[in-house]
Amino acid sequence: MIPMEIIATIRSDFPTKFGIPRQSGLVEELRATVVFEPEYRNPDALRGLEDFSHLWLIWQFSEAVRDKWSPTVRPPRLGGNTRMGVFATRSPFRPNPIGLSCVRLEGIRREPELGHVLEVSGADLMDGTPILDIKPYIPYADCRPEASGGFTGSGGGATLAVDFPPELLERVPADKRAALTGVLSRDPRPPYQHDPERVYGLDFAGVNIRFTVDGDTLTVRAVERMADKQNRTNR
């Protein structure tokens, strides 16, 4: 066994897995904060990092840790019905549940109680995800324009038109609206679900969004503060 240390956790607007973009960078408006564990809050460890525009986050699929693994998985991109080799996918269900995300470094700031934290955009991580390492993105080595994408194709997938009534959009914090609209446009549903009557629920940035999808249009039906939803549930 190789010992691994959790060096940080991420604070994002996703309290659950549902709705998180399937790859990093698809929704650039998403903001998150990397908070280091106390023993790694040494500013010297970040010296020179501000000169890089993007970072690699290496992290643990903490909600997908299992005792066993399977050599094949069912990628959502293929509708959940076709099996592919686990090493030909980015599935969380792998021998070592490790994820890799490329994010933009928006800034480094010092918090009185947390030390230096990293502000990043485009992250595809659930709130509280453990981070195992951080490396700079190096364009001349990491960018391969000629690379083929296998069964994933060349793009990030089709996007939906989002019908978000203004009176409902106003219930979302102003600084989160663009990110939420971007998340919804990426179609949060499992690829194999296409019932236009089904109402889905997405928790994001302290609100619960209820929506339906008919064809290429996603329509927001309701927006409720999570605190109000929890209070109603506890009655």
UniProtKB/TrEMBL annotation:
SUPFAM superfamilies, per the entry: YaeB-like
PROSITE patterns: TSAA_1 (PS01318), TSAA_2 (PS51668)
Gene expressing this chain: tsaA
Signal peptide: none
Name recorded for this polypeptide: tRNA (N6-threonylcarbamoyladenosine(37)-N6)-methyltransferase TrmO
The TsaA-like domain, residue ranges: 4-146
UniProt-listed InterPro entries: TrmO-like_N, TrmO_C, UPF0066_cons_site, YaeB-like, YaeB-like_sf, YaeB_N_sf
NCBIfam families the record matches: tRNA_TsaA
Similarity annotation: Belongs to the tRNA methyltransferase O family.
Organism the protein comes from: Flavonifractor plautii (Fusobacterium plautii)
Keywords: S-adenosyl-L-methionine
Entries under Pfam families matching the protein: TrmO_C, TrmO_N
